[in-house]
Protein backbone atom coordinates (compact mmCIF):
# COMPACT_ATOMS: atom_id res chain seq x y z
CA UNK A 1 0.00 0.00 0.00
CA UNK A 2 2.99 2.32 -0.26
CA UNK A 3 2.10 3.29 -3.81
CA UNK A 4 -0.75 5.79 -4.09
CA UNK A 5 -3.27 4.96 -6.80
CA UNK A 6 -3.29 7.60 -9.59
CA UNK A 7 -7.00 8.40 -9.21
CA UNK A 8 -6.38 9.20 -5.53
CA UNK A 9 -3.86 11.88 -6.54
CA UNK A 10 -6.44 13.50 -8.82
CA UNK A 11 -9.20 13.26 -6.21
CA UNK A 12 -6.83 14.66 -3.59
CA UNK A 13 -6.02 17.52 -5.95
CA UNK A 14 -9.72 18.28 -6.43
CA UNK A 15 -10.28 18.16 -2.65
CA UNK A 16 -7.33 20.51 -2.10
CA UNK A 17 -8.71 22.88 -4.75
CA UNK A 18 -12.10 22.92 -2.99
CA UNK A 19 -10.41 23.66 0.35
CA UNK A 20 -8.33 26.46 -1.17
CA UNK A 21 -11.46 27.88 -2.83
CA UNK A 22 -13.30 27.73 0.53
CA UNK A 23 -10.44 29.53 2.27
CA UNK A 24 -10.11 32.34 -0.26
CA UNK A 25 -13.56 32.76 -1.77
CA UNK A 26 -15.66 32.55 1.40
CA UNK A 27 -15.79 35.10 4.18
CA UNK A 28 -13.61 34.26 7.18
CA UNK A 29 -12.99 37.81 8.48
CA UNK A 30 -15.24 37.16 11.50
CA UNK A 31 -12.95 34.36 12.68
CA UNK A 32 -10.36 36.33 14.74
CA UNK A 33 -13.06 38.19 16.67
CA UNK A 34 -14.89 35.02 17.69
CA UNK A 35 -11.83 32.82 18.24
CA UNK A 36 -11.91 32.91 22.09
CA UNK A 37 -15.62 32.11 22.05
CA UNK A 38 -15.03 29.23 19.62
CA UNK A 39 -12.32 27.87 21.91
CA UNK A 40 -14.69 27.97 24.87
CA UNK A 41 -17.41 26.33 22.81
CA UNK A 42 -15.18 23.44 21.73
CA UNK A 43 -13.99 22.99 25.32
CA UNK A 44 -17.58 22.83 26.59
CA UNK A 45 -18.60 20.33 23.90
CA UNK A 46 -15.64 18.07 24.73
CA UNK A 47 -16.29 18.45 28.46
CA UNK A 48 -19.98 17.51 28.15
CA UNK A 49 -19.07 14.60 25.89
CA UNK A 50 -16.44 13.24 28.31
CA UNK A 51 -18.55 13.63 31.47
CA UNK A 52 -21.77 12.18 30.02
CA UNK A 53 -19.97 9.27 28.33
CA UNK A 54 -18.14 8.33 31.54
CA UNK A 55 -21.21 8.65 33.78
CA UNK A 56 -23.46 6.98 31.21
CA UNK A 57 -21.07 4.04 30.89
CA UNK A 58 -20.94 3.57 34.68
CA UNK A 59 -24.73 3.59 34.75
CA UNK A 60 -24.95 1.14 31.85
CA UNK A 61 -23.07 -1.59 33.77
CA UNK A 62 -25.84 -2.17 36.36
CA UNK A 63 -28.44 -1.73 33.60
CA UNK A 64 -26.82 -4.40 31.46
CA UNK A 65 -26.18 -6.69 34.40
CA UNK A 66 -29.77 -6.42 35.63
CA UNK A 67 -31.09 -7.35 32.17
CA UNK A 68 -28.59 -10.13 31.56
CA UNK A 69 -28.64 -11.91 34.91
CA UNK A 70 -30.81 -10.00 37.36
CA UNK A 71 -34.07 -11.16 38.99
CA UNK A 72 -37.25 -10.03 37.24
CA UNK A 73 -37.89 -7.10 39.62
CA UNK A 74 -34.57 -5.59 38.51
CA UNK A 75 -34.61 -6.77 34.90
CA UNK A 76 -38.07 -5.43 34.07
CA UNK A 77 -37.43 -1.81 35.15
CA UNK A 78 -34.05 -1.84 33.39
CA UNK A 79 -35.67 -3.10 30.19
CA UNK A 80 -38.43 -0.49 30.40
CA UNK A 81 -35.85 2.26 30.99
CA UNK A 82 -33.82 1.21 27.94
CA UNK A 83 -36.93 0.95 25.73
CA UNK A 84 -38.21 4.38 26.79
CA UNK A 85 -34.82 6.05 26.27
CA UNK A 86 -34.29 4.36 22.91
CA UNK A 87 -37.89 4.86 21.78
CA UNK A 88 -38.14 8.63 22.19
CA UNK A 89 -36.05 11.41 20.61
CA UNK A 90 -33.26 12.83 22.75
CA UNK A 91 -34.42 16.35 21.91
CA UNK A 92 -37.77 15.57 23.54
CA UNK A 93 -36.12 14.03 26.62
CA UNK A 94 -33.94 17.12 26.95
CA UNK A 95 -36.90 19.48 26.69
CA UNK A 96 -38.98 17.33 29.05
CA UNK A 97 -36.25 17.64 31.70
CA UNK A 98 -35.38 21.29 31.14
CA UNK A 99 -38.74 22.89 30.33
CA UNK A 100 -40.96 20.28 32.00
CA UNK A 101 -39.19 19.53 35.26
CA UNK A 102 -37.68 23.01 35.24
CA UNK A 103 -41.19 24.47 35.33
CA UNK A 104 -42.36 22.07 38.06
CA UNK A 105 -39.44 22.56 40.46
CA UNK A 106 -40.16 26.18 41.48
CA UNK A 107 -43.61 25.09 42.78
CA UNK A 108 -41.97 23.23 45.65
CA UNK A 109 -40.67 25.56 48.39
CA UNK A 110 -38.35 22.91 49.84
CA UNK A 111 -36.54 22.56 46.50
CA UNK A 112 -36.06 26.30 46.26
CA UNK A 113 -34.61 26.36 49.76
CA UNK A 114 -32.27 23.42 49.18
CA UNK A 115 -28.56 23.74 48.43
CA UNK A 116 -29.10 22.27 44.94
CA UNK A 117 -31.32 25.16 43.82
CA UNK A 118 -28.51 27.36 42.38
CA UNK A 119 -27.59 24.43 40.12
CA UNK A 120 -31.18 23.59 39.22
CA UNK A 121 -31.63 27.09 37.87
CA UNK A 122 -28.85 26.64 35.32
CA UNK A 123 -29.16 24.74 32.07
CA UNK A 124 -26.07 22.52 32.06
CA UNK A 125 -27.14 20.07 34.83
CA UNK A 126 -30.23 19.21 32.77
CA UNK A 127 -28.05 18.75 29.68
CA UNK A 128 -25.65 16.46 31.56
CA UNK A 129 -28.49 14.41 33.10
CA UNK A 130 -30.34 14.00 29.78
CA UNK A 131 -27.24 13.03 27.80
CA UNK A 132 -26.05 10.68 30.55
CA UNK A 133 -29.39 8.87 30.72
CA UNK A 134 -29.49 8.64 26.93
CA UNK A 135 -26.00 7.13 26.73
CA UNK A 136 -26.81 4.73 29.57
CA UNK A 137 -29.98 3.60 27.78
CA UNK A 138 -28.23 2.79 24.50
CA UNK A 139 -25.10 1.35 26.11
CA UNK A 140 -27.12 -0.66 28.65
CA UNK A 141 -28.52 -2.62 25.74
CA UNK A 142 -24.99 -3.22 24.42
CA UNK A 143 -23.73 -4.28 27.87
CA UNK A 144 -26.64 -6.73 28.20
CA UNK A 145 -25.39 -8.51 25.10
CA UNK A 146 -21.78 -8.25 26.25
CA UNK A 147 -22.51 -9.77 29.69
CA UNK A 148 -24.49 -12.58 28.05
CA UNK A 149 -21.71 -13.35 25.57
CA UNK A 150 -19.07 -14.14 28.22
CA UNK A 151 -18.69 -17.95 28.17
CA UNK A 152 -20.62 -19.56 31.03
CA UNK A 153 -17.81 -22.01 31.72
CA UNK A 154 -15.55 -19.23 32.93
CA UNK A 155 -18.12 -17.99 35.43
CA UNK A 156 -18.83 -21.55 36.58
CA UNK A 157 -15.10 -22.20 36.99
CA UNK A 158 -14.72 -19.06 39.10
CA UNK A 159 -17.68 -20.08 41.24
CA UNK A 160 -16.26 -23.59 41.61
CA UNK A 161 -13.02 -22.06 42.90
CA UNK A 162 -15.09 -20.43 45.62
CA UNK A 163 -14.71 -16.88 44.37
CA UNK A 164 -17.17 -14.44 45.94
CA UNK A 165 -19.80 -13.08 43.55
CA UNK A 166 -18.53 -9.53 43.54
CA UNK A 167 -14.97 -10.69 42.85
CA UNK A 168 -16.24 -12.79 39.93
CA UNK A 169 -17.89 -9.69 38.52
CA UNK A 170 -14.80 -7.55 39.04
CA UNK A 171 -12.13 -9.99 37.88
CA UNK A 172 -13.83 -12.23 35.29
CA UNK A 173 -17.20 -11.04 34.09
CA UNK A 174 -16.86 -7.26 33.75
CA UNK A 175 -13.41 -7.13 32.05
CA UNK A 176 -14.45 -9.60 29.37
CA UNK A 177 -17.81 -7.89 28.84
CA UNK A 178 -16.11 -4.51 28.42
CA UNK A 179 -13.64 -6.00 25.98
CA UNK A 180 -16.52 -7.36 23.91
CA UNK A 181 -18.39 -4.05 24.08
CA UNK A 182 -15.36 -1.92 23.19
CA UNK A 183 -15.86 -1.71 19.40
CA UNK A 184 -19.50 -0.68 19.89
CA UNK A 185 -18.45 1.70 22.66
CA UNK A 186 -16.37 3.68 20.16
CA UNK A 187 -19.34 3.98 17.82
CA UNK A 188 -21.66 4.96 20.68
CA UNK A 189 -19.21 7.69 21.74
CA UNK A 190 -19.26 9.15 18.23
CA UNK A 191 -23.09 9.05 18.31
CA UNK A 192 -22.95 10.80 21.69
CA UNK A 193 -20.74 13.52 20.20
CA UNK A 194 -23.32 13.98 17.47
CA UNK A 195 -26.01 14.37 20.14
CA UNK A 196 -24.20 17.14 22.03
CA UNK A 197 -25.30 20.05 19.78
CA UNK A 198 -28.86 19.48 21.02
CA UNK A 199 -27.87 21.08 24.33
CA UNK A 200 -27.64 24.38 22.47
CA UNK A 201 -31.46 24.37 22.32
CA UNK A 202 -31.58 24.72 26.11
CA UNK A 203 -29.11 27.64 26.16
CA UNK A 204 -25.91 25.72 26.95
CA UNK A 205 -23.19 27.52 24.96
CA UNK A 206 -21.32 24.73 23.18
CA UNK A 207 -19.56 25.05 19.81
CA UNK A 208 -22.88 24.71 17.97
CA UNK A 209 -24.38 27.61 19.94
CA UNK A 210 -21.29 29.71 19.16
CA UNK A 211 -21.72 29.04 15.45
CA UNK A 212 -25.41 29.95 15.67
CA UNK A 213 -24.46 33.20 17.36
CA UNK A 214 -21.96 34.02 14.64
CA UNK A 215 -24.67 33.41 12.06
CA UNK A 216 -27.09 35.68 13.90
CA UNK A 217 -24.52 38.45 14.42
CA UNK A 218 -23.00 38.53 10.94
CA UNK A 219 -25.76 37.09 8.70
CA UNK A 220 -23.17 34.72 7.20
CA UNK A 221 -24.92 31.43 6.38
CA UNK A 222 -22.47 28.75 5.27
CA UNK A 223 -19.05 29.55 6.74
CA UNK A 224 -19.87 28.97 10.44
CA UNK A 225 -21.67 25.74 9.50
CA UNK A 226 -18.64 24.55 7.52
CA UNK A 227 -16.37 25.35 10.47
CA UNK A 228 -18.77 23.41 12.68
CA UNK A 229 -18.67 20.38 10.37
CA UNK A 230 -14.86 20.45 10.32
CA UNK A 231 -14.65 20.71 14.14
CA UNK A 232 -16.98 17.74 14.62
CA UNK A 233 -15.10 15.68 12.02
CA UNK A 234 -11.80 16.36 13.82
CA UNK A 235 -13.26 15.34 17.21
CA UNK A 236 -14.75 12.21 15.61
CA UNK A 237 -11.35 11.37 14.14
CA UNK A 238 -9.70 11.74 17.55
CA UNK A 239 -12.33 9.46 19.18
CA UNK A 240 -11.97 6.80 16.47
CA UNK A 241 -8.15 6.84 16.73
CA UNK A 242 -8.25 6.72 20.54
CA UNK A 243 -10.54 3.70 20.57
CA UNK A 244 -8.41 1.98 17.92
CA UNK A 245 -5.38 2.43 20.18
CA UNK A 246 -7.35 1.14 23.17
CA UNK A 247 -8.51 -1.93 21.25
CA UNK A 248 -4.97 -2.65 20.09
CA UNK A 249 -3.68 -2.57 23.67
CA UNK A 250 -6.18 -5.16 24.85
CA UNK A 251 -5.24 -8.73 23.95
CA UNK A 252 -7.84 -10.41 21.79
CA UNK A 253 -8.07 -13.60 19.82
CA UNK A 254 -9.86 -13.50 16.51
CA UNK A 255 -11.45 -16.86 15.89
CA UNK B 1 -48.38 17.00 45.90
CA UNK B 2 -48.93 20.26 44.08
CA UNK B 3 -46.98 18.85 41.14
CA UNK B 4 -49.28 15.87 40.86
CA UNK B 5 -52.30 18.13 41.16
CA UNK B 6 -50.91 20.44 38.48
CA UNK B 7 -50.38 17.46 36.20
CA UNK B 8 -53.94 16.21 36.78
CA UNK B 9 -55.55 19.56 36.09
CA UNK B 10 -53.65 19.99 32.81
CA UNK B 11 -54.63 16.60 31.43
CA UNK B 12 -57.81 17.99 29.80
CA UNK B 13 -55.54 20.21 27.68
CA UNK B 14 -54.78 17.02 25.75
CA UNK B 15 -58.43 16.68 24.62
CA UNK B 16 -58.94 16.24 20.88
CA UNK B 17 -61.36 19.14 20.29
CA UNK B 18 -60.12 22.77 20.14
CA UNK B 19 -59.81 23.83 23.78
CA UNK B 20 -57.47 20.85 24.01
CA UNK B 21 -54.38 20.45 21.85
CA UNK B 22 -54.78 16.75 21.02
CA UNK B 23 -55.56 17.40 17.35
CA UNK B 24 -52.39 19.48 16.96
CA UNK B 25 -50.26 16.74 18.51
CA UNK B 26 -51.79 14.08 16.26
CA UNK B 27 -51.27 16.27 13.19
CA UNK B 28 -47.63 16.67 14.26
CA UNK B 29 -47.34 12.90 14.68
CA UNK B 30 -48.80 12.40 11.20
CA UNK B 31 -46.24 14.85 9.74
CA UNK B 32 -43.44 13.07 11.58
CA UNK B 33 -44.51 9.68 10.24
CA UNK B 34 -44.83 11.11 6.73
CA UNK B 35 -41.33 12.60 6.78
CA UNK B 36 -39.87 9.48 8.36
CA UNK B 37 -41.46 7.28 5.67
CA UNK B 38 -40.23 9.54 2.88
CA UNK B 39 -36.73 9.83 4.32
CA UNK B 40 -36.52 6.09 4.94
CA UNK B 41 -37.62 5.36 1.36
CA UNK B 42 -35.17 7.86 -0.12
CA UNK B 43 -32.47 6.46 2.16
CA UNK B 44 -33.19 2.93 0.89
CA UNK B 45 -32.86 4.07 -2.74
CA UNK B 46 -29.60 5.94 -2.03
CA UNK B 47 -28.39 3.07 0.14
CA UNK B 48 -29.01 0.40 -2.50
CA UNK B 49 -27.25 2.46 -5.16
CA UNK B 50 -24.45 3.29 -2.71
CA UNK B 51 -23.97 -0.32 -1.64
CA UNK B 52 -23.74 -1.49 -5.25
CA UNK B 53 -21.39 1.39 -6.03
CA UNK B 54 -19.16 0.52 -3.08
CA UNK B 55 -19.05 -3.17 -3.97
CA UNK B 56 -18.94 -3.15 -7.76
CA UNK B 57 -18.12 0.45 -8.74
CA UNK B 58 -14.83 1.79 -10.09
CA UNK B 59 -12.13 3.16 -7.79
CA UNK B 60 -13.34 6.77 -8.11
CA UNK B 61 -16.95 5.84 -7.27
CA UNK B 62 -15.76 3.88 -4.24
CA UNK B 63 -13.63 6.74 -2.93
CA UNK B 64 -16.41 9.28 -3.40
CA UNK B 65 -18.92 7.00 -1.64
CA UNK B 66 -16.43 6.47 1.18
CA UNK B 67 -16.17 10.25 1.61
CA UNK B 68 -19.99 10.54 1.59
CA UNK B 69 -20.59 7.87 4.23
CA UNK B 70 -17.69 9.01 6.42
CA UNK B 71 -18.65 12.69 6.42
CA UNK B 72 -22.34 12.07 7.02
CA UNK B 73 -21.63 9.69 9.88
CA UNK B 74 -19.11 12.04 11.52
CA UNK B 75 -21.06 15.31 11.44
CA UNK B 76 -24.09 15.79 13.74
CA UNK B 77 -27.48 15.47 12.01
CA UNK B 78 -28.44 18.90 13.31
CA UNK B 79 -25.52 20.55 11.48
CA UNK B 80 -26.15 18.50 8.33
CA UNK B 81 -29.82 19.44 8.37
CA UNK B 82 -28.94 23.14 8.54
CA UNK B 83 -26.26 22.91 5.83
CA UNK B 84 -28.38 20.81 3.47
CA UNK B 85 -31.53 22.83 4.18
CA UNK B 86 -29.86 26.09 3.15
CA UNK B 87 -27.82 24.50 0.36
CA UNK B 88 -30.77 22.63 -1.19
CA UNK B 89 -32.99 25.72 -1.11
CA UNK B 90 -30.17 27.82 -2.57
CA UNK B 91 -29.33 25.41 -5.40
CA UNK B 92 -32.97 24.88 -6.40
CA UNK B 93 -33.62 28.62 -6.46
CA UNK B 94 -30.47 29.37 -8.45
CA UNK B 95 -31.45 26.71 -10.99
CA UNK B 96 -34.93 28.21 -11.23
CA UNK B 97 -33.52 31.71 -11.70
CA UNK B 98 -31.10 30.42 -14.35
CA UNK B 99 -34.06 28.92 -16.22
CA UNK B 100 -35.92 32.19 -15.99
CA UNK B 101 -38.42 31.03 -13.36
CA UNK B 102 -39.26 32.85 -10.16
CA UNK B 103 -37.89 31.78 -6.77
CA UNK B 104 -39.94 29.37 -4.70
CA UNK B 105 -40.18 28.55 -1.03
CA UNK B 106 -39.45 24.84 -0.59
CA UNK B 107 -42.07 23.16 1.57
CA UNK B 108 -40.97 21.87 4.94
CA UNK B 109 -42.01 18.30 4.16
CA UNK B 110 -39.97 18.16 0.93
CA UNK B 111 -36.90 19.71 2.52
CA UNK B 112 -37.18 17.47 5.57
CA UNK B 113 -37.51 14.31 3.47
CA UNK B 114 -34.56 15.28 1.25
CA UNK B 115 -32.26 16.19 4.11
CA UNK B 116 -33.05 13.21 6.33
CA UNK B 117 -33.01 10.93 3.26
CA UNK B 118 -29.43 11.95 2.43
CA UNK B 119 -28.44 11.25 6.06
CA UNK B 120 -30.27 7.92 6.09
CA UNK B 121 -28.70 6.98 2.76
CA UNK B 122 -25.22 6.98 4.27
CA UNK B 123 -26.20 4.57 7.04
CA UNK B 124 -28.33 2.45 4.69
CA UNK B 125 -25.33 2.13 2.32
CA UNK B 126 -23.31 0.47 5.08
CA UNK B 127 -26.18 -1.75 6.25
CA UNK B 128 -26.98 -2.97 2.73
CA UNK B 129 -23.32 -3.40 1.81
CA UNK B 130 -22.83 -5.69 4.80
CA UNK B 131 -26.02 -7.60 3.94
CA UNK B 132 -24.99 -8.11 0.29
CA UNK B 133 -21.58 -9.35 1.45
CA UNK B 134 -23.35 -11.87 3.69
CA UNK B 135 -25.06 -13.51 0.70
CA UNK B 136 -23.13 -16.72 -0.13
CA UNK B 137 -20.87 -15.83 -3.07
CA UNK B 138 -21.64 -19.12 -4.79
CA UNK B 139 -25.27 -18.17 -5.34
CA UNK B 140 -24.36 -14.93 -7.13
CA UNK B 141 -21.62 -16.66 -9.12
CA UNK B 142 -24.02 -19.43 -10.14
CA UNK B 143 -26.54 -16.88 -11.41
CA UNK B 144 -23.79 -15.08 -13.30
CA UNK B 145 -22.58 -18.36 -14.77
CA UNK B 146 -26.12 -19.02 -16.01
CA UNK B 147 -25.85 -15.76 -17.95
CA UNK B 148 -28.31 -13.79 -15.84
CA UNK B 149 -28.17 -10.06 -16.64
CA UNK B 150 -27.13 -7.82 -13.68
CA UNK B 151 -30.55 -6.28 -12.99
CA UNK B 152 -32.35 -9.61 -13.07
CA UNK B 153 -29.63 -11.01 -10.80
CA UNK B 154 -30.12 -8.19 -8.31
CA UNK B 155 -33.91 -8.54 -8.40
CA UNK B 156 -34.14 -12.32 -8.23
CA UNK B 157 -31.04 -13.38 -6.24
CA UNK B 158 -29.08 -10.71 -4.39
CA UNK B 159 -31.82 -8.47 -3.02
CA UNK B 160 -34.19 -11.24 -1.78
CA UNK B 161 -31.29 -13.24 -0.32
CA UNK B 162 -29.78 -10.27 1.52
CA UNK B 163 -33.13 -9.07 2.90
CA UNK B 164 -33.03 -11.26 6.01
CA UNK B 165 -29.53 -9.98 6.85
CA UNK B 166 -30.52 -6.36 6.24
CA UNK B 167 -33.83 -6.24 8.15
CA UNK B 168 -32.41 -5.80 11.70
CA UNK B 169 -30.16 -2.94 10.55
CA UNK B 170 -32.97 -1.37 8.54
CA UNK B 171 -35.34 -1.61 11.51
CA UNK B 172 -32.78 0.33 13.54
CA UNK B 173 -32.52 2.90 10.75
CA UNK B 174 -36.30 3.31 10.67
CA UNK B 175 -36.30 4.05 14.42
CA UNK B 176 -33.47 6.54 13.89
CA UNK B 177 -35.52 8.15 11.10
CA UNK B 178 -38.59 8.59 13.30
CA UNK B 179 -36.48 10.11 16.07
CA UNK B 180 -34.48 12.32 13.72
CA UNK B 181 -37.67 14.00 12.53
CA UNK B 182 -37.66 15.71 15.95
CA UNK B 183 -34.53 17.61 14.84
CA UNK B 184 -36.59 19.40 12.19
CA UNK B 185 -38.24 21.24 15.09
CA UNK B 186 -35.01 23.26 15.33
CA UNK B 187 -35.54 24.44 11.72
CA UNK B 188 -39.09 25.36 12.73
CA UNK B 189 -40.99 22.65 10.88
CA UNK B 190 -44.33 21.61 12.37
CA UNK B 191 -43.70 17.99 13.26
CA UNK B 192 -44.58 16.42 16.60
CA UNK B 193 -41.86 17.99 18.75
CA UNK B 194 -42.42 21.47 17.34
CA UNK B 195 -46.23 21.22 17.74
CA UNK B 196 -45.65 20.03 21.29
CA UNK B 197 -43.39 22.96 22.07
CA UNK B 198 -45.97 25.38 20.70
CA UNK B 199 -48.77 23.80 22.72
CA UNK B 200 -46.61 23.73 25.84
CA UNK B 201 -45.46 27.31 25.36
CA UNK B 202 -49.02 28.57 24.98
CA UNK B 203 -50.53 26.69 27.90
CA UNK B 204 -47.43 26.68 30.15
CA UNK B 205 -48.10 22.97 30.83
CA UNK B 206 -44.63 21.92 29.67
CA UNK B 207 -44.39 18.68 31.61
CA UNK B 208 -47.78 17.33 30.49
CA UNK B 209 -47.22 18.01 26.81
CA UNK B 210 -43.67 16.72 26.55
CA UNK B 211 -44.73 13.60 28.43
CA UNK B 212 -47.65 13.13 26.02
CA UNK B 213 -45.36 13.54 23.00
CA UNK B 214 -42.96 11.03 24.55
CA UNK B 215 -45.80 8.52 24.85
CA UNK B 216 -46.70 9.08 21.18
CA UNK B 217 -43.10 8.55 20.03
CA UNK B 218 -42.81 5.47 22.23
CA UNK B 219 -46.03 4.03 20.82
CA UNK B 220 -44.72 4.66 17.29
CA UNK B 221 -41.46 2.85 17.99
CA UNK B 222 -43.16 -0.06 19.77
CA UNK B 223 -45.61 -0.55 16.88
CA UNK B 224 -42.70 -0.32 14.42
CA UNK B 225 -40.87 -2.98 16.42
CA UNK B 226 -43.81 -5.38 16.07
CA UNK B 227 -44.16 -4.69 12.34
CA UNK B 228 -40.45 -5.17 11.67
CA UNK B 229 -40.55 -8.39 13.71
CA UNK B 230 -43.23 -9.68 11.32
CA UNK B 231 -41.24 -8.55 8.26
CA UNK B 232 -38.11 -10.24 9.57
CA UNK B 233 -39.98 -13.48 10.14
CA UNK B 234 -41.32 -13.23 6.58
CA UNK B 235 -37.85 -12.48 5.14
CA UNK B 236 -36.40 -15.45 7.02
CA UNK B 237 -39.04 -17.90 5.79
CA UNK B 238 -37.51 -21.13 4.62
CA UNK B 239 -34.23 -20.52 6.45
CA UNK B 240 -33.23 -23.05 9.10
CA UNK B 241 -33.38 -21.62 12.62
CA UNK B 242 -29.79 -21.45 13.84
CA UNK B 243 -30.19 -21.44 17.66
CA UNK B 244 -29.08 -18.52 19.79
CA UNK B 245 -30.85 -15.19 19.54
CA UNK B 246 -34.51 -16.03 19.44
CA UNK B 247 -35.85 -12.49 19.05
Automatic annotation (TrEMBL), chain A:
<dbReference type="GO" id="GO:0022857">
    <property type="term" value="F:transmembrane transporter activity"/>
</dbReference>
<keyword id="KW-0997">Cell inner membrane</keyword>
<dbReference type="GO" id="GO:0043190">
    <property type="term" value="C:ATP-binding cassette (ABC) transporter complex"/>
</dbReference>
<keyword id="KW-0472">Membrane</keyword>
<feature type="domain" description="ABC transmembrane type-1">
    <location>
        <begin position="42"/>
        <end position="243"/>
    </location>
</feature>
<dbReference type="InterPro" id="IPR000515">
    <property type="entry name" value="MetI-like"/>
</dbReference>
<keyword id="KW-0812">Transmembrane</keyword>
<dbReference type="InterPro" id="IPR010065">
    <property type="entry name" value="AA_ABC_transptr_permease_3TM"/>
</dbReference>
<comment type="similarity">
    <text>Belongs to the binding-protein-dependent transport system permease family. HisMQ subfamily.</text>
</comment>
<dbReference type="Pfam" id="PF00528">
    <property type="entry name" value="BPD_transp_1"/>
</dbReference>
<dbReference type="GO" id="GO:0006865">
    <property type="term" value="P:amino acid transport"/>
</dbReference>
<keyword id="KW-1003">Cell membrane</keyword>
<feature type="transmembrane region" description="Helical">
    <location>
        <begin position="123"/>
        <end position="140"/>
    </location>
</feature>
<dbReference type="InterPro" id="IPR043429">
    <property type="entry name" value="ArtM/GltK/GlnP/TcyL/YhdX-like"/>
</dbReference>
<feature type="transmembrane region" description="Helical">
    <location>
        <begin position="220"/>
        <end position="243"/>
    </location>
</feature>
<keyword id="KW-0813">Transport</keyword>
<feature type="transmembrane region" description="Helical">
    <location>
        <begin position="90"/>
        <end position="111"/>
    </location>
</feature>
<keyword id="KW-1133">Transmembrane helix</keyword>
<dbReference type="InterPro" id="IPR035906">
    <property type="entry name" value="MetI-like_sf"/>
</dbReference>
<feature type="transmembrane region" description="Helical">
    <location>
        <begin position="9"/>
        <end position="26"/>
    </location>
</feature>
<feature type="transmembrane region" description="Helical">
    <location>
        <begin position="46"/>
        <end position="69"/>
    </location>
</feature>
<protein>
    <submittedName>
        <fullName>ABC transporter permease</fullName>
    </submittedName>
</protein>
TrEMBL record, chain B:
<feature type="transmembrane region" description="Helical">
    <location>
        <begin position="65"/>
        <end position="88"/>
    </location>
</feature>
<protein>
    <submittedName>
        <fullName>ABC transporter permease subunit</fullName>
    </submittedName>
</protein>
<dbReference type="InterPro" id="IPR035906">
    <property type="entry name" value="MetI-like_sf"/>
</dbReference>
<keyword id="KW-0472">Membrane</keyword>
<keyword id="KW-0997">Cell inner membrane</keyword>
<keyword id="KW-0813">Transport</keyword>
<feature type="domain" description="ABC transmembrane type-1">
    <location>
        <begin position="29"/>
        <end position="228"/>
    </location>
</feature>
<feature type="transmembrane region" description="Helical">
    <location>
        <begin position="205"/>
        <end position="228"/>
    </location>
</feature>
<dbReference type="Pfam" id="PF00528">
    <property type="entry name" value="BPD_transp_1"/>
</dbReference>
<dbReference type="InterPro" id="IPR000515">
    <property type="entry name" value="MetI-like"/>
</dbReference>
<keyword id="KW-1133">Transmembrane helix</keyword>
<dbReference type="InterPro" id="IPR051613">
    <property type="entry name" value="ABC_transp_permease_HisMQ"/>
</dbReference>
<keyword id="KW-1003">Cell membrane</keyword>
<dbReference type="InterPro" id="IPR010065">
    <property type="entry name" value="AA_ABC_transptr_permease_3TM"/>
</dbReference>
<comment type="similarity">
    <text>Belongs to the binding-protein-dependent transport system permease family. HisMQ subfamily.</text>
</comment>
<dbReference type="GO" id="GO:0022857">
    <property type="term" value="F:transmembrane transporter activity"/>
</dbReference>
<feature type="transmembrane region" description="Helical">
    <location>
        <begin position="32"/>
        <end position="53"/>
    </location>
</feature>
<keyword id="KW-0812">Transmembrane</keyword>
<feature type="transmembrane region" description="Helical">
    <location>
        <begin position="157"/>
        <end position="177"/>
    </location>
</feature>
<dbReference type="GO" id="GO:0043190">
    <property type="term" value="C:ATP-binding cassette (ABC) transporter complex"/>
</dbReference>
Amino acid sequence: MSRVAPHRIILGGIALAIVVWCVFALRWDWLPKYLPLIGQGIWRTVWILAVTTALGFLLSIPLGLAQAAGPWYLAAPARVFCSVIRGTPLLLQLWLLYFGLGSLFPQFPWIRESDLWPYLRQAWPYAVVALTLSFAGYEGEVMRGAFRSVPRGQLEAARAMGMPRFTILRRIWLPQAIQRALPTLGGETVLQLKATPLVATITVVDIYAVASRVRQDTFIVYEPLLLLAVVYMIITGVIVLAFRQLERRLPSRVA
Amino acid sequence: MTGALALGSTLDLLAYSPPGWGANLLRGLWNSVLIALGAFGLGLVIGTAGAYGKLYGGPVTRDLLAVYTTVVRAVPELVLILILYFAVTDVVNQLLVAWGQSRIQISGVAAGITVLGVVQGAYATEVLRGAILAVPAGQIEAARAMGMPPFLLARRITLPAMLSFAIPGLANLWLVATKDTALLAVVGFGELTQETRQAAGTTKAFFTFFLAAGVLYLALSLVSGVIFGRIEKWARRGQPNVGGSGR
